[in-house]
Amino acid sequence: MADQRTVIVTGYGAWAKTAENPAAMVLRALADLRWSACRFVPIEVPVRTSGLTEIVEDALLTHRPDIWLGLGVAPETTAIHGEIVGINCRDFDVPDNDGVTLEGAPVIEDGEDAYFATLPVRGIVAAVKDAGIPAAVSYSAGTHLCNQMLYTSLHLIRRHDLQTRCGFMHVPYTPEFAVGLADAEKVRPSMALPLMVEAARIAVEVSLEALGAEAGEDVGAVSVAGE
Protein backbone atom coordinates (compact mmCIF):
# COMPACT_ATOMS: atom_id res chain seq x y z
CA MET A 1 0.00 0.00 0.00
CA ALA A 2 1.19 3.50 -0.83
CA ASP A 3 0.59 4.78 2.70
CA GLN A 4 2.54 2.01 4.40
CA ARG A 5 5.53 3.06 6.43
CA THR A 6 8.95 1.79 5.39
CA VAL A 7 11.11 -0.01 7.95
CA ILE A 8 14.77 -0.82 7.37
CA VAL A 9 16.45 -3.31 9.68
CA THR A 10 20.17 -3.94 9.28
CA GLY A 11 22.19 -6.81 10.70
CA TYR A 12 25.91 -7.44 10.63
CA GLY A 13 27.26 -10.59 9.00
CA ALA A 14 30.18 -12.85 9.93
CA TRP A 15 33.27 -11.42 11.63
CA ALA A 16 36.25 -12.46 13.73
CA LYS A 17 34.21 -13.60 16.75
CA THR A 18 31.09 -14.89 15.02
CA ALA A 19 31.20 -17.12 11.95
CA GLU A 20 27.37 -17.07 11.98
CA ASN A 21 26.47 -13.69 13.37
CA PRO A 22 23.32 -13.75 15.54
CA ALA A 23 22.43 -10.30 14.21
CA ALA A 24 22.23 -11.66 10.66
CA MET A 25 20.29 -14.68 11.91
CA VAL A 26 17.73 -12.42 13.57
CA LEU A 27 17.51 -10.31 10.42
CA ARG A 28 16.80 -13.33 8.20
CA ALA A 29 14.11 -14.56 10.57
CA LEU A 30 12.47 -11.13 10.60
CA ALA A 31 12.47 -11.13 6.80
CA ASP A 32 10.50 -14.38 6.89
CA LEU A 33 7.65 -12.73 8.77
CA ARG A 34 4.67 -11.35 6.88
CA TRP A 35 4.58 -7.62 7.62
CA SER A 36 1.05 -6.23 7.38
CA ALA A 37 1.48 -2.58 8.36
CA CYS A 38 4.81 -1.63 6.81
CA ARG A 39 7.19 -2.26 3.95
CA PHE A 40 10.03 -4.23 5.50
CA VAL A 41 13.52 -3.86 4.00
CA PRO A 42 16.24 -6.15 5.45
CA ILE A 43 19.88 -5.25 4.81
CA GLU A 44 22.76 -7.52 5.84
CA VAL A 45 25.88 -5.42 6.29
CA PRO A 46 29.51 -6.61 6.11
CA VAL A 47 31.69 -6.02 9.17
CA ARG A 48 33.89 -3.43 7.49
CA THR A 49 34.52 0.04 8.85
CA SER A 50 35.39 1.28 5.36
CA GLY A 51 32.42 1.85 3.08
CA LEU A 52 29.76 1.80 5.79
CA THR A 53 28.82 5.42 5.21
CA GLU A 54 28.14 4.72 1.54
CA ILE A 55 26.01 1.66 2.33
CA VAL A 56 23.90 3.56 4.86
CA GLU A 57 23.55 6.67 2.71
CA ASP A 58 22.46 4.67 -0.34
CA ALA A 59 19.82 2.79 1.67
CA LEU A 60 18.50 5.96 3.31
CA LEU A 61 18.18 7.90 0.07
CA THR A 62 16.81 4.94 -1.92
CA HIS A 63 14.11 3.91 0.57
CA ARG A 64 13.67 7.04 2.73
CA PRO A 65 12.49 4.87 5.61
CA ASP A 66 10.30 5.93 8.49
CA ILE A 67 12.20 3.62 10.84
CA TRP A 68 15.83 2.44 10.82
CA LEU A 69 16.86 -0.24 13.31
CA GLY A 70 20.38 -1.66 13.40
CA LEU A 71 21.20 -5.05 14.91
CA GLY A 72 24.57 -6.26 16.15
CA VAL A 73 26.00 -8.82 18.55
CA ALA A 74 27.51 -7.94 21.92
CA PRO A 75 29.60 -10.99 22.90
CA GLU A 76 29.32 -10.67 26.68
CA THR A 77 25.81 -9.28 27.04
CA THR A 78 23.20 -11.22 29.00
CA ALA A 79 20.20 -9.41 27.55
CA ILE A 80 18.81 -7.40 24.66
CA HIS A 81 20.31 -3.91 24.83
CA GLY A 82 18.52 -0.88 23.43
CA GLU A 83 21.20 1.69 22.69
CA ILE A 84 20.64 5.31 23.68
CA VAL A 85 23.60 7.07 22.05
CA GLY A 86 26.18 6.72 19.29
CA ILE A 87 29.53 8.51 19.69
CA ASN A 88 31.98 9.82 17.12
CA CYS A 89 34.74 7.35 17.90
CA ARG A 90 36.14 4.14 16.38
CA ASP A 91 38.50 2.30 18.70
CA PHE A 92 38.91 -1.47 18.41
CA ASP A 93 41.68 -4.05 18.45
CA VAL A 94 39.53 -6.90 17.13
CA PRO A 95 39.97 -6.45 13.37
CA ASP A 96 37.11 -5.98 10.97
CA ASN A 97 36.80 -8.19 7.89
CA ASP A 98 39.49 -6.17 6.12
CA GLY A 99 41.91 -6.67 9.00
CA VAL A 100 41.55 -3.05 10.11
CA THR A 101 42.02 -1.98 13.73
CA LEU A 102 41.69 1.61 14.93
CA GLU A 103 42.58 3.70 17.95
CA GLY A 104 40.58 6.83 18.61
CA ALA A 105 39.58 7.53 15.00
CA PRO A 106 36.41 9.56 14.39
CA VAL A 107 33.45 7.96 12.66
CA ILE A 108 32.86 11.19 10.73
CA GLU A 109 35.55 13.86 10.46
CA ASP A 110 34.30 17.09 12.04
CA GLY A 111 31.05 15.34 13.04
CA GLU A 112 29.15 16.00 16.25
CA ASP A 113 30.53 14.31 19.36
CA ALA A 114 27.41 12.16 19.71
CA TYR A 115 23.85 11.63 18.51
CA PHE A 116 20.98 10.24 20.56
CA ALA A 117 18.77 7.49 19.15
CA THR A 118 15.38 8.74 17.99
CA LEU A 119 13.46 5.48 18.38
CA PRO A 120 11.51 5.08 21.65
CA VAL A 121 14.29 3.06 23.28
CA ARG A 122 12.87 2.96 26.78
CA GLY A 123 9.45 1.97 25.48
CA ILE A 124 10.99 -0.78 23.38
CA VAL A 125 12.96 -2.16 26.32
CA ALA A 126 9.89 -2.08 28.56
CA ALA A 127 7.80 -3.94 25.96
CA VAL A 128 10.51 -6.55 25.44
CA LYS A 129 10.72 -7.13 29.20
CA ASP A 130 6.91 -7.36 29.39
CA ALA A 131 7.18 -10.20 26.86
CA GLY A 132 9.41 -12.09 29.31
CA ILE A 133 12.67 -11.40 27.46
CA PRO A 134 15.67 -9.98 29.38
CA ALA A 135 16.37 -6.45 28.15
CA ALA A 136 18.02 -3.25 29.33
CA VAL A 137 18.64 0.32 28.25
CA SER A 138 22.31 0.80 27.36
CA TYR A 139 24.22 4.07 27.41
CA SER A 140 27.23 2.79 25.47
CA ALA A 141 27.12 1.07 22.09
CA GLY A 142 30.88 0.55 22.32
CA THR A 143 33.42 1.87 19.82
CA HIS A 144 33.31 -0.87 17.18
CA LEU A 145 31.08 -1.25 14.11
CA CYS A 146 27.79 -1.30 16.04
CA ASN A 147 28.42 2.16 17.42
CA GLN A 148 29.60 3.22 13.96
CA MET A 149 26.29 2.09 12.45
CA LEU A 150 24.23 4.00 15.02
CA TYR A 151 26.30 7.17 14.76
CA THR A 152 26.55 7.08 10.96
CA SER A 153 22.85 6.53 10.37
CA LEU A 154 21.86 9.31 12.78
CA HIS A 155 24.43 11.65 11.22
CA LEU A 156 23.22 11.00 7.67
CA ILE A 157 19.56 11.31 8.63
CA ARG A 158 20.33 14.77 9.99
CA ARG A 159 22.53 15.70 7.01
CA HIS A 160 19.80 14.85 4.51
CA ASP A 161 17.01 16.28 6.67
CA LEU A 162 15.11 12.99 6.69
CA GLN A 163 12.24 12.18 9.06
CA THR A 164 13.61 8.69 9.81
CA ARG A 165 13.50 7.50 13.42
CA CYS A 166 16.68 5.58 14.16
CA GLY A 167 18.11 3.25 16.78
CA PHE A 168 20.26 0.22 17.44
CA MET A 169 19.80 -3.02 19.36
CA HIS A 170 22.51 -5.36 20.62
CA VAL A 171 21.76 -9.08 20.92
CA PRO A 172 23.72 -11.82 22.74
CA TYR A 173 25.32 -14.94 21.30
CA THR A 174 23.08 -17.87 20.48
CA PRO A 175 23.55 -20.89 22.80
CA GLU A 176 24.95 -22.93 19.91
CA PHE A 177 27.64 -20.39 19.24
CA ALA A 178 28.50 -19.95 22.93
CA VAL A 179 28.92 -23.71 23.37
CA GLY A 180 31.12 -23.96 20.29
CA LEU A 181 33.67 -21.32 21.32
CA ALA A 182 37.29 -22.40 21.55
CA ASP A 183 37.51 -21.44 25.24
CA ALA A 184 34.52 -23.64 25.99
CA GLU A 185 35.45 -23.94 29.69
CA LYS A 186 34.43 -20.30 30.13
CA VAL A 187 30.67 -19.95 30.39
CA ARG A 188 29.44 -17.31 27.93
CA PRO A 189 26.03 -15.64 28.14
CA SER A 190 23.58 -16.46 25.37
CA MET A 191 19.94 -16.22 24.34
CA ALA A 192 17.75 -18.46 22.19
CA LEU A 193 17.31 -17.14 18.67
CA PRO A 194 13.46 -17.07 18.78
CA LEU A 195 13.61 -14.73 21.80
CA MET A 196 15.95 -12.37 19.98
CA VAL A 197 13.71 -12.41 16.90
CA GLU A 198 10.68 -11.62 19.04
CA ALA A 199 12.55 -8.78 20.74
CA ALA A 200 13.43 -7.23 17.38
CA ARG A 201 9.86 -7.67 16.13
CA ILE A 202 8.60 -5.92 19.26
CA ALA A 203 11.09 -3.10 18.66
CA VAL A 204 9.63 -2.51 15.21
CA GLU A 205 6.07 -2.79 16.51
CA VAL A 206 6.62 -0.29 19.32
CA SER A 207 8.33 2.11 16.91
CA LEU A 208 5.46 1.90 14.44
CA GLU A 209 2.92 2.39 17.20
CA ALA A 210 4.79 5.47 18.43
CA LEU A 211 4.77 6.99 14.95
CA GLY A 212 1.11 6.14 14.52
CA ALA A 213 0.19 7.66 17.85
CA GLU A 214 1.93 10.90 16.90
CA ALA A 215 -0.04 10.99 13.65
CA GLY A 216 -3.31 9.98 15.28
CA GLU A 217 -3.37 6.65 13.44
CA ASP A 218 -4.44 3.17 14.53
CA VAL A 219 -1.50 0.96 13.53
CA GLY A 220 -2.93 -2.41 14.55
CA ALA A 221 -0.94 -5.64 14.20
CA VAL A 222 2.34 -5.20 12.36
CA SER A 223 3.42 -8.75 11.65
CA VAL A 224 2.47 -12.41 11.79
CA ALA A 225 4.59 -15.50 11.37
CA GLY A 226 5.20 -16.42 7.76
CA GLU A 227 4.06 -19.75 6.45
How many discrete domains?
Answer: 1
- Rg, rounded, reads 17 Å
The unreliable regions are none
Structural class based on helices, strands and sheet pairing = alpha/beta
CATH superfamily: Peptidase C15, pyroglutamyl peptidase I-like
CATH class: Alpha Beta
SSE run: EHEEHEEEEEEHEHEHHE
State the share of residues found in helices, binned by percent.
25-40%
Q: Gap between N and C termini, in Å?
A: 21 Å
CATH topology: Aminopeptidase
Query: Kindly state the mean pLDDT as a whole number?
Result: 92
Q: Please state how the strands of the largest beta sheet are arranged side by side.
A: 3-1-4-11-5-10
Description of the molecule:
The protein has 227 residues and is of the alpha/beta class. The protein has a single domain, classed as Peptidase C15, pyroglutamyl peptidase I-like (Aminopeptidase, 3-Layer(aba) Sandwich), CATH 3.40.630.20. 33% of the residues lie in helices and 24% in strands. The protein is built from 6 helices and 12 strands. The protein has helices spanning 22-31, 52-63, 121-130, 145-159, 175-179, 193-215; strands at residues 5-12, 34-35, 38-45, 67-73, 80-83, 85-87, 90-92, 102-105, 114-116, 135-138, 165-171, 223-224. A 6-stranded mixed β-sheet has the order 3-1-4-11-5-10, with helices on both faces. A two-stranded antiparallel sheet has the order 2-12. Helix 1 (22-31) crosses helix 6 (193-215). The longest helix has 23 residues, at 193-215. The protein is globular, with a radius of gyration of 17 Å. The model has no long low-confidence stretch (mean pLDDT 92).
